[in-house]
Amino acid sequence: MVIIMTPTADDVQLTAVQDKLVSLGFRVHRSRGVRFTILGAIGDKTGVDQRALEALPGVQSVVEISEPYKLASRTFCPEDTVVNVKRAHIGQGVTLMAGPCSVEDEDQIMRLAEVAAQNGATVLRGGAFKPRTSPYSFQGLGEAGLELLRRAADRFELAVVTEALEPDHVPLVAAYADMIQIGARNMQNYALLRKVGRSEMPVLLKRGLSATLKEWLMAAEYVLSEGNSQVVLCERGVRSFVDHCRFMLDFAAIPALRQMTHLPLIVDPSHAAGRRELVIPLALGALAVGCDGLIVEIHHDPKSAQSDGPQALLPEDLARLARQIDRNCAVSSEVG
Ligand code: PEP
Ligand code: MN
């Protein structure tokens, strides 16, 4: 349940309510919005007198969260969450994340970090641990890749987002990155979700290949319930019968999720498209349905890329997308 405090509730009242909830055996999560402060109480509420809680000084109302995802739900936190990752404020305006599918070598990542920064990206992506369909495909450079990523990002004042494939990777990835990516194939790897939940690192949680929105939010709940509130969801397309693209980008997920959750929502048009010529149209569609940002793959020489070359935007494509994002932002500020 959530306890909504009156706008005038002071710190003494807040702490008293919080202490009361703890004494009743709840774990309490405080979220301070612009207008209200809300206390999320997680635990067994059998035998708890809701009216007695409502009567406490400073309490406006006590609301049951009927959804199975509690901390991720809009009821728990009516205001949109913003996740700050260095200069990126994900959930405020449009955030652009760009970089190669995999970190390949120093020259490649330095060039592409520069391209990303020149085109308004604030976050550099790049895999050092790669989830590959074939065990014989390039698996990533591991720690050497993380080091290169960090150096490239620092040189161009970018934040780093990169994937941790296994729970054991988390401390290593956290030592180099600013945000940990949980890939689509790991969306329901609960041990991994718990581990990043305990890491205090912002988490980019990609949608599973065939996950419903509820399953995805339950995965986010694993991270949130460990005390990590910095979760960003990333729609990247789901499996379907079509064969004109790699995965089918679920545009409806964005407005549907907006009602269900307060978490920021970004879109990865690259993995959905699977081919370069579809990436920008999908990115523009994602902006049109109101996503908070995009994560795109880029490469200066896609034919030589170790992974996902066919879907990599060229530097000039990224520049075109960046111009479109600027135009889009200008139009939405005129409208809004
Ligand atoms: C990636 O972003 O590098 C990746 C492998 O994406 P996904 O997990 O969405 O397939
Ligand atoms: Mn990729």
Strand content: 15-25%
- CATH homologous superfamily grouping of the largest domain: Aldolase class I
The biggest beta sheet is recorded as: 8 strands, parallel, barrel
Number of domains: 2
Radius of gyration equals 21 Å
| CATH class placement of the largest domain | Alpha Beta
**Count of alpha and pi helical runs:** 11
Ions, cofactors and other bound molecules: phosphoenolpyruvate, manganese (II) ion
- The ordered H/E elements are EHEEHEEEEHEHEHEHEHEHEHHEH
Structural class: alpha/beta
Which fold name corresponds to the CATH topology of the largest domain? TIM Barrel
- How many β strands by DSSP? 14
CATH architecture of the largest domain: Alpha-Beta Barrel
- Helix share, percent: 25-40%
**What is the CA-CA span between the terminal residues?**
34 Å
List keywords for this structure.
binds manganese (II) ion; 11 helices; alpha/beta; Alpha-Beta Plaits; 2 domains; binds phosphoenolpyruvate; TIM Barrel; 8-stranded parallel β-barrel; 336 residues
Write structural notes for this entry.
There is one protein chain. This protein has two domains: 2-63, Alpha-Beta Plaits (2-Layer Sandwich), CATH 3.30.70.1140; 83-335, Aldolase class I (TIM Barrel), CATH 3.20.20. The chain is built from eleven helices and 14 strands. The chain has helices at 11-23, 50-54, 106-118, 143-155, 170-176, 190-197, 213-224, 253-260, 269-273, 276-288, 315-335, and strands spanning 2-5, 27-32, 37-42, 59-63, 83-85, 88-90, 95-99, 123-125, 159-163, 179-182, 203-206, 231-235, 265-267, 293-297. The strands form three sheets. It has an eight-stranded parallel barrel, surrounded by seven helices. The mean pLDDT is 94. The structure holds phosphoenolpyruvate and manganese (II) ion.
